Every structure is written in structure tokens, then in C-alpha cells.
Amino acid sequence: MYIGAGILLLLIGLVIVFAYNGDMSIAGLDIGAIGWIAIVLGVLAIILSLILDRRRRETIVRDDRRY
């Protein structure tokens, strides 16, 4: 579920950091820093989604057969 949001944040951050050539400061905010923050958050979202997905796949099988 979070893997799509993570990929989106990662792509937005990469575009901001590596492809944006305009003024890197808008209203006192450093756009380059915002791009790096988006990259880090995207990677964390992807890693957390993989960890949580692995946790959900573990199943417990009980054998309730009575003879």
C-alpha cells in the first residue's frame, strides 16, 4: 500500500534535486533540501511497506483434527 506513495515521493525528490534548474529558494525554503527530504521519506516508505508486507504473509497453521 505504501510502496506506491514511496515511489512517488522518491521520484518527486529525484526530479527536484537533479532536474530542477530554477531558483532553489522559494519564500525562504530551500527546494534542494525539500527534494532530499522527499527522497529519504520515499525510501523509508518503501522499506517499511516491504517489512509490513512480510509480517502479514506469515501465517500460523493449526491442526484441529480430532480422532
Which structural class do the helices and strands define? mainly alpha
End-to-end CA span: 43 Å
Mean pLDDT: 84
- According to DSSP, the number of beta strands is 2
Q: Which term fits the overall shape?
A: rod-shaped
Largest sheet: 2 strands, antiparallel
Determine the fraction of residues in helical runs and give it as a percent range: 55-70%
Query: What sequence of helices (H) and strands (E) makes up the elements?
Result: HEEH
Radius of gyration: 20 Å
Instruction: Report the sheet-strand fraction.
Output: 5-15%
In spatial order, strands of the major sheet run 1-2
From the structure above, extract its key features.
67 residues, mainly alpha, two-stranded antiparallel ribbon, 2 helices, membrane, transmembrane helix, DUF6458
